[in-house]
Design a protein that fits this description.
four-stranded antiparallel sheet; single chain
């Protein structure tokens, strides 16, 4: 067993044994298979290398040869990597959601300004005018926050529905080529 090495698990999972004879490599592979470790064999610089890449199999081998402390260290690294990966996924998801909210708010403001230039917000129904004014005054508010801030609070879905109505009005002006009027 003195012919083995384990890579730093923070970089990669890799355990290998370098043995001088093919027969010994085959016997070691069988022994490792008996404890549930899926080992592979390759010849490198005249040596037969028996290696394992799966972290669970490496843990099994380390435990089998009496290196329980190393097994625990490997498990701790795996936990740390898992937590870091989950945190990165959450951060990326949050960032994507923020980008989506900002783009939607900018599109809503663009629609409202177009309506304002063409017919003025006073031409809108009271409920659409209130939503439009709230959005212009609160660019970073979520749909839920806008809904809660209305004189008669409504759901996020209700706010979204009203913004769709505003978008349809703005799209009507765009389709008529009235997107640049200053009236």
């Amino acid at each position: 067993m003195a012919c083995g090495s384990v890579n730093d698990p923070t970089k990669e999972y890799h355990l290998e044994f370098s043995v001088p004879q093919e027969r010994l490599a085959d016997e070691l592979s069988v022994l490792l298979g008996d404890i549930g470790a899926a080992a592979k064999t390759v010849v490198r610089r005249g040596q037969h290398i028996v290696y394992i890449k799966e972290s669970e199999s490496i843990e099994d081998v380390l435990t089998f040869i009496g290196a329980q402390r190393c097994t625990l260290e490997l498990m701790n690294v795996k936990i740390w990597k898992d937590v870091r990966n989950k945190a990165n996924r959450i951060a990326n998801c949050d960032s994507a959601n923020i980008d989506k909210v900002v783009k939607a708010a900018m599109r809503q403001i663009e629609d409202i300004r177009l309506i304002q230039r063409n017919i003025g917000l006073d031409a809108l129904s009271q409920e659409l005018r209130e939503i439009a004014e709230l959005r212009l005054e609160n660019r970073d508010m979520s749909l839920q926050e806008i809904g809660e801030s209305l004189s008669v609070p409504i759901s996020r879905s209700g706010v979204n529905h009203r913004f769709k109505k505003l978008a349809a009005i703005a799209d009507e002006f765009r389709s008529r080529g009235e997107s640049n009027e200053t009236g």
